[in-house]
Amino acid sequence: MGLTSKLGELGIVTVKLEDTVNWARTRAMWPMLFGLACCAIEMMSTQASVYDVSRFGMELMRPSPRQSDLMIVAGRVTRKMAPVLRQLYDQMPDPKWVLSMGDCASCGGVFNNYAIVQGVDEIVPVDVYIAGCPPRPEQLIHGIMTLHERVKQERLEDWV
Amino acid sequence: MTDIQETTIWEGDIQQLKGLVSERALAGETMVLNMGPQHPSTHGVLRLMLELDGETIISCVPDVGYLHTGIEKNMESKRYEQSIVMTDRMDYLSPMNNNLVYCLAIEKIAGLDVPERAQVIRVMLAELTRINSHLVWLATHALDIGAMSVFLYCFRERERLLDIFEIVSGQRMMSTYFRPGGIWRDLPAEFFPAVRSFLEDFPRRIEDYERLLTENPIWLDRTQGIGFLSADDAIKLGCSGPVLRGSGVNWDIRKAIPYSGYEQYDFDVPLGVHGDVYDRYLIRMEELRQSLRIIEQALARLPEGPFRSNNRKYVPPPRSELGQSMEAVIHHFKLWTEGFSLPESEVYVRIESPRGELGCFLRSDGGNKPARVHFRTPSFVHLSALPAMAKGYLIADLVGIIGTIDIVLGDCDR
Predict the structure, then answer these.
(1) Count of the separate structural domains present in chain B
(2) Are B174 and A38 in contact (CB under 8 A)?
(3) Structure ipTM
């Protein structure tokens, strides 16, 4: 967070509004508890003891889209699931971000057939793609960090 | 952006559900509730339509297909050895077992014999996969019922197993390690200390889990007498694995129709008495211990020798032969350009996956691609037993009942 100046002993810190808001957003970005397939198991590994994504302010997975900021599309999205996924995305309050986790969500992966949506970006706007089948938890964390960097770049004019 | 039909919000009237729900629901006396496909305790994308009288479940209609991946159809357009990667992604908690059943089907048609060393390695890894799968089951089952710490402990141990899979295959989950005629490559030296230390450590961990749950009064209240399934019903509904054994039926394919040399191992098949969620929990906990026993025996009797068949029509030659033998180069070229062909035939093989009977029907038409592959997956069959198990219990018990059949939607929908 860019501290622009410290005002002596008044206990007041002046910062840019953008930086403060972006800092707050990256420090408590609650993901939606929404697993689709194999990647969801790696997402659970990321949540669990060894990788512990709560280091990044994500210890709470919210099962309700109304309480979540980040949608991690973890797994293959079928044509039957696609409308549900879009509805979940629409129910999330702004600001919201989407992480496309794994090859299937990003581009269909090995399943180029009638059943699978060839990339979840056909139905929701994706911020960060994570490659891998399934991606390792480190990769998911890297994706989350990349998203954080992106959020920190956001400027006031982007919001209004 | 693709156009999506706006059909997600159901605005029809209740009369459209005629046949699925009872007359009382049509008359408005009972409530019809949707559960899923996005729900924290449905283990994926299961959707249930529940008919409730107060909090009591009158009927439960599963709606599957939210994860239908078309794997069986996709496999028809891939060569036999290419489609092994597809089987990993079916039941993503026990990929090695899926590899195994598919390889066994190919081997049965081809008449390939698998060397002893490969058989033992397969058994060892299949049992490690069973532990892996049961750990995820225990973690999510306990989490659904409200025991958060078990989840963290189970995933800690699971990481060690995933490290072992990474040592042997280079991948944590989707290992694609078993190949027709044997395995991909021999076990690396790092495998043995990793497995030994796991075997040493894990019995204490099972005790830890049991101390947290087995006599925990909340756990007992939430699991004992819930989700009852009688032995007759379990057989009639086609249940297998821990769900069937929980009702007291002694049926384990590893014992009944042994494959991969399971008849040479000494292990017990735990059986339940009451046929409820708690008994199935006890059975799976005991299976963890029995799997450890099998792995110990396999480690002790692991013979030296080739790790895959020498039948060059199906198995590629080792790299060392390529510089010396023209025949090896020809076989290598043939296998990597067009793969192997199987004679016209059809087989059905079955194995005991962590969830129950996993069967593979394979029909070959003489070409290098399967004409039809079908998997008989335990999750799909058990899902049809879910309405029978859930009927009459409270809606709060449903998450426990879903957990007890250890459903994996990838396995169910394929």
Answers:
(1) 1
(2) yes
(3) 0.85
